[in-house]
Write a structure and sequence with these properties.
Helix content is 29%, strand content 23%. The chain is of the alpha+beta class and 271 residues long. The structure holds 2-amino-4-trifluoromethylsulfanyl-butyric acid (MF3) and cobalt (II) ion (CO) (2 copies).
């Protein structure tokens, strides 16, 4: 599959789809509280997408080769769920960490973003995992400019996660995105500097590291979607969709509620 370089028209459409995806996360944030079920959060997100935004969930009925159709509008991955958690009867409780991953389609263009939520008072480990994973995503984003290589992104993410005693999930990665949900290139979250594809202006791809507090090994549940840590350790993930510009990058999945870029990354970039 070829990598598509986006036109000015594509980029304009992607800015809109990506902002809308981020606005679903803004909308759902006040509802993420102890006592709510993941199914209720999913229902609220779908209602907001369809009734308020006039967007379509890219997840609902999504069926890559070898998978059953995905049965919900969002992915909600709690505690030891790494990704693709299917919303349902599970009730969120104090101390849980969860990822909500939103992909919307607007005018045929896909916007993909996820954030972590810590419910009530999280453990010291949970807070450290969520913050380090956020820093990992941002360290990766800061590598994005023409002439850099995809391995530069993976390298900084892996180095930061492993320096903290955490591990990087290998089976799932970032991806090109546009008028197709998952397209080339694959953006892995580990690697060596200077290796892999050279980054070019007009590329749009996601960076979405999944970082485990324990070992990197995964197990997939019988529903064929839900992916958990094999050792039942906590896992965290953040995701942005990124445009490669002539001189660097533009984060497309931004809205009023987007969390700030972390200060530790500012320092790492300055040094
Ligand atoms: N949004 C996920 C990603 O970041 C993909 C979810 S596919 C689904 O690539 F079918 F599980 F929703
Ligand atoms: Co994605
Ligand atoms: Co996503």
């Amino acid at each position: 599959m070829a990598i598509t370089l986006k036109t000015a028209h594509d980029i304009e459409k992607m800015r809109v789809a990506c902002r809308l995806a981020s606005e679903v996360l803004d909308f759902i944030t006040p509802h993420v509280k102890a006592g709510v079920s993941t199914g209720e959060l999913d229902r609220l997100c779908l209602e907001y997408m369809e009734q308020e935004q006039h967007t379509v969930s890219a997840c609902l009925n999504y069926q890559p080769p070898g998978y059953p159709p995905y049965p919900a509008a969002t992915c909600i991955s709690v505690n030891d769920v790494i990704c693709h958690g299917i919303p349902g009867d599970k009730v969120i409780k104090n101390g849980d960490i969860l990822n909500i991953d939103i992909t919307v389609i607007k005018d045929g263009y896909f916007g993909d973003t996820s954030r972590m939520f810590i419910v009530g008072e999280g453990s010291i480990l949970a807070k450290r995992l969520v913050n380090v994973t956020y820093e990992c995503m941002w360290l990766g984003i800061e590598q994005v400019r023409p002439g850099a290589h995809l391995g530069d992104i993976g390298h900084v993410i892996q180095r930061h996660a492993e320096a903290q005693g955490f591990s990087v999930v290998r089976e799932y990665c970032g991806h090109g995105i546009g008028q197709v949900f998952h397209e080339d290139p694959q953006v892995v979250h580990y690697g060596r500097p200077g290796t892999g594809l050279e980054i070019q202006p007009g590329m749009i791809f996601t960076i979405e590291p999944m970082i485990n507090a324990g070992k990197r090994d995964i197990r997939t549940m019988p529903d064929q979607w839900t992916v958990k840590t094999r050792d039942r350790s906590l896992s965290a993930q953040w995701e942005h969709t990124i445009l490669v510009t002539g001189t660097g990058h533009e984060v497309l999945t931004v809205s009023a509620g987007t969390p700030a870029r972390p200060s530790s990354v500012l320092e790492a970039v300055a040094s």
